[in-house]
């Protein structure tokens, strides 16, 4: 009887059966899955093979025994007839790899086999332009077994060329970028770059230095701006405006650079490659402080220059590159009738020429359009042009047109009418001068400062007997004069002429001399320095004067001899007369004293007349003796105190009877301060008495009534002044000659004045005679206190 199973066993059997069923179902499912996976793998393999075939990369497996697993493309790439199956088949005759490339590949594979070292080679098959890049690594064990190497080959013919070109372009771009970066960094002015969000991304050293920051990184980090906001416009606003406009924006703003306020020109440039999206804003700032200063100075210079041009006498106008009138000074406006409207409108030169022609301010020409175009073409000339314009009213203009570097024109017109007239006058004067020179009695020559003959007249040429051609060569004075020495009586005297000319040209001193020619002619010559540095040589023929001088010298010698005889005769005669006169006077005094008894009245009057005549004759003899001694230089005077007032009073008293007899009023005006002087009283008495006697004598015949003689005397600490004046007819010519130091014969008045002058001079005084015909005579005598 079957043993009944327990519940536990039944449960275990059920569980086992369930597990078995599950395992069977899992195995079936696993088999189905594997089948499906195998089919999937097969499909994937086919697809991978297709992909590898279509891929630009060709896998090649080199096994440890150097067998090769690869597709037929490898043979085509290497130019082989069939796909290689071993490594040695990669090398063929004229095809495949050459020996060097084949060996290099072998060594690389060996390295990968031994050290699992990857490598990359560039292979070029023989007879082909193809470039194959070979990248090798140790192959996994599942791919080719131990010692296998997996090679990935790619045809890089086009890629290598493009890569090489790209590398070259990259290198060039990098070099350019580095150079540009270096240039930006080394730029002396601030430069920066902003990202699209307008934040600073790059600044150069000049920027860092300008904002006084520690580094560029600190500037970028803190966003330090170079320019402060101006009128509510910040630096980012200006950059945004440049980006919106799509073009560079320029502004001039004040900027503080290293603590100093400067004027900067700031430029923001949007960067958009080939018109694409803006990738950033570049900017730079240039210090134009000096430029603005120079511009201001230039404006002030232009204003000052134009103010100066207005004061010039020359007419000046400036035209711009567009041929328009830019400026005209006041003389130009007056000369060409240019208005302020012409200047403000920038009237072209062509239109101005038309207006000037209508106003008669251009010369008359045959073809005006051609002339007008030629003058408009002044702007294009590389050099200045000069013309002479003769206007209808006789005005003569010198016109200069100077093209300016900016394409404009500077026009200068100078009114030379007066100069032309002066030149004509000068030419006339030169002709007159030449004619005058040639007709002068003197021989004249002008020498330049360098000693060359400059001008001469015909008398100079004829005097020295020189050809015109010789003088026309303007020889030097030494050459000229050395050739003329044989004309002189003493040839060595030619050096005197040279020295005189040299002194006038170099030392600027005037000198003179005298020379004699062989033919007996005498010439005085002198050199005179002229204001222009030249020297004037004048030669005067004094031959006749020399002859006359000789004759006069002989006559003068004869007169001097006769005068000496006359003086000696007068002196001897005076002494001879004095002896009998002394005897006559002595006997007359004895008769008057009664030694011969009492004389009757008639005899007494006779004796008195004799004594008066003796006295007059004695005075005349003394005068003659003094005059003779004065002329001989032997006149001696005594030195004793003389009471001037007493001396003059006695002279008035002695002359009173003679004046009363001649009916002439005699007046004395003697000062109280006359005092005394050192002198010879008798001779001074004769001087005053002679002057009073002459005055009375010459006044009486002309003035039968109303004749008047005045004796005036005054004194000071230095001396005494005595004046004798009358209202007579004046001095005769012969007597007047005595006042000029000439001889006057033996007239009484003449001898009196001549003697008076000598006696006054002997006392150290002076005598002055003033006489006017019909008005009278005045004699002034000045005597010093001491001799």
Automatic annotation (TrEMBL):
<dbReference type="InterPro" id="IPR000014">
    <property type="entry name" value="PAS"/>
</dbReference>
<dbReference type="InterPro" id="IPR003594">
    <property type="entry name" value="HATPase_dom"/>
</dbReference>
<keyword id="KW-0808">Transferase</keyword>
<dbReference type="InterPro" id="IPR035965">
    <property type="entry name" value="PAS-like_dom_sf"/>
</dbReference>
<dbReference type="InterPro" id="IPR036097">
    <property type="entry name" value="HisK_dim/P_sf"/>
</dbReference>
<dbReference type="InterPro" id="IPR005467">
    <property type="entry name" value="His_kinase_dom"/>
</dbReference>
<dbReference type="InterPro" id="IPR050736">
    <property type="entry name" value="Sensor_HK_Regulatory"/>
</dbReference>
<feature type="domain" description="Histidine kinase">
    <location>
        <begin position="572"/>
        <end position="787"/>
    </location>
</feature>
<dbReference type="GO" id="GO:0000155">
    <property type="term" value="F:phosphorelay sensor kinase activity"/>
</dbReference>
<dbReference type="InterPro" id="IPR004358">
    <property type="entry name" value="Sig_transdc_His_kin-like_C"/>
</dbReference>
<keyword id="KW-0418">Kinase</keyword>
<dbReference type="InterPro" id="IPR003661">
    <property type="entry name" value="HisK_dim/P_dom"/>
</dbReference>
<keyword id="KW-0902">Two-component regulatory system</keyword>
<dbReference type="Pfam" id="PF00512">
    <property type="entry name" value="HisKA"/>
</dbReference>
<dbReference type="InterPro" id="IPR036890">
    <property type="entry name" value="HATPase_C_sf"/>
</dbReference>
<keyword id="KW-0597">Phosphoprotein</keyword>
<dbReference type="Pfam" id="PF12860">
    <property type="entry name" value="PAS_7"/>
</dbReference>
<protein>
    <recommendedName>
        <fullName>histidine kinase</fullName>
        <ecNumber>2.7.13.3</ecNumber>
    </recommendedName>
</protein>
<dbReference type="Pfam" id="PF02518">
    <property type="entry name" value="HATPase_c"/>
</dbReference>
């Amino acid at each position: 009887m079957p043993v009944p199973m327990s519940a536990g066993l039944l449960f275990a059997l059920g569980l086992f059966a369930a597990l078995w069923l599950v395992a069977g179902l899992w195995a079936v499912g696993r088999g189905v899955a594997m089948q499906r996976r195998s089919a999937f793998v097969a499909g994937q393999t086919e697809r991978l093979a297709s992909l590898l075939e279509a891929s630009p990369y060709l896998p090649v497996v080199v096994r440890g025994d150097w067998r090769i697993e690869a597709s037929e493309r490898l043979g085509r790439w290497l130019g082989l007839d069939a796909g290689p199956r071993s490594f040695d088949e990669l090398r063929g005759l004229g095809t495949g790899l050459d020996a060097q490339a084949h060996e290099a590949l072998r060594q690389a594979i060996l390295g990968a086999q031994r050290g699992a070292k990857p490598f990359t080679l560039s292979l070029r098959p023989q007879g082909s332009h193809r470039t194959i890049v070979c990248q090798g690594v140790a192959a996994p064990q599942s791919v080719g077994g131990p010692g296998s190497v997996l090679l990935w080959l790619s045809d890089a013919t086009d890629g290598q060329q493009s890569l090489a070109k790209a590398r070259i372009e990259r290198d060039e771009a990098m070099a350019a970028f580095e150079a540009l970066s270096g240039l930006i960094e080394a730029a002396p002015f601030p430069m920066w770059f902003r990202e699209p969000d307008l934040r600073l991304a790059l600044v150069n050293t000049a920027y860092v230095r300008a904002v006084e920051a520690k580094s560029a990184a600190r500037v970028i980090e803190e966003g330090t701006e170079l320019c402060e906001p101006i009128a509510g416009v910040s630096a980012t606003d200006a950059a945004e405006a440049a980006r919106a406009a799509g073009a560079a924006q320029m502004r001039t703003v004040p900027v503080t650079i290293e603590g100093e306020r400067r004027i900067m020109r700031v430029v923001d440039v949007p960067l958009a490659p080939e018109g694409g999206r803006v990738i950033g804003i570049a900017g730079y700032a240039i210090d134009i402080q000096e430029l603005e200063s120079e511009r201001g100075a230039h404006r002030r210079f232009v204003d000052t220059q134009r103010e100066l041009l207005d004061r010039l006498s020359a007419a000046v106008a400036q035209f711009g590159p567009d041929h328009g009138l830019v400026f005209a000074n006041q003389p130009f406006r007056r000369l060409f009738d240019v208005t302020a409207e012409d200047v403000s409108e920038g009237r072209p030169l062509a239109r101005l020429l038309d207006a000037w022609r209508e106003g008669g301010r251009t010369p008359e020409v045959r073809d005006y359009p051609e002339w007008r175009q030629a003058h408009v073409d002044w702007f294009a000339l590389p050099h200045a042009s000069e013309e002479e314009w003769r206007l209808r009213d006789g005005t003569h203009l010198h016109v200069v047109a100077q093209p300016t570097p900016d394409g404009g024109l500077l026009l200068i017109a100078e009114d030379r009418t007066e100069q032309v007239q002066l030149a004509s006058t000068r030419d006339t004067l030169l002709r007159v001068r030449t004619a005058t020179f040639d007709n002068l009695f003197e021989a004249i020559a002008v020498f330049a400062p360098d000693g060359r003959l400059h001008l001469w007249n015909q008398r100079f040429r004829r005097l020295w007997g020189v050809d015109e051609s010789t003088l026309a060569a303007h020889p030097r004075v030494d050459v000229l004069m050395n050739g003329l020495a044989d004309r002189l009586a003493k040839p060595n005297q030619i050096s005197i002429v040279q020295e005189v000319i040299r002194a006038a040209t170099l030392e600027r001193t005037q000198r003179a001399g005298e020379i004699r020619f062989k033919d007996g002619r005498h010439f005085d010559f002198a050199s005179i320095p002229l204001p222009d540095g030249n020297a004037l040589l004048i030669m005067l023929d004094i031959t006749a004067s020399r002859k006359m001088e000789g004759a006069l010298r002989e006559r003068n010698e004869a007169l001097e001899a006769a005068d000496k005889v006359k003086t000696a005769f007068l002196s001897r005669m005076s002494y001879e007369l004095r002896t009998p006169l002394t005897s006559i006077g002595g006997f007359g005094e004895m008769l008057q004293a009664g030694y011969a008894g009492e004389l009757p009245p008639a005899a007494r009057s006779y004796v008195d007349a004799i004594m008066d005549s003796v006295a007059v004759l004695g005075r005349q003899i003394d005068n003659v003796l003094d005059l003779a001694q004065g002329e001989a230089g032997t006149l001696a005077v005594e030195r004793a105190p003389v009471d001037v007032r007493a001396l003059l009073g006695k002279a008035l008293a002695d002359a009173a009877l003679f004046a009363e007899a001649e009916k002439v009023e005699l007046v004395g005006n003697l000062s109280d301060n006359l005092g005394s002087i050192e002198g010879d009283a008798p001779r001074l008495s004769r001087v005053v008495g002679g002057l009073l006697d002459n005055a009375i004598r010459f006044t009486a015949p002309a003035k039968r009534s109303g004749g008047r003689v005045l004796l005036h005397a005054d004194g000071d600490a230095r001396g005494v002044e005595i004046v004798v004046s009358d209202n007579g007819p004046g001095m005769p010519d012969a007597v007047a000659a005595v006042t000029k130091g000439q001889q006057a014969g033996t007239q009484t008045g003449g001898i009196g004045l001549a003697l008076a002058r000598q006696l006054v001079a002997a006392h150290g005084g002076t005598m002055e005679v003033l006489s006017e015909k019909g008005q009278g005579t005045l004699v002034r005598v000045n005597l010093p206190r001491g001799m």
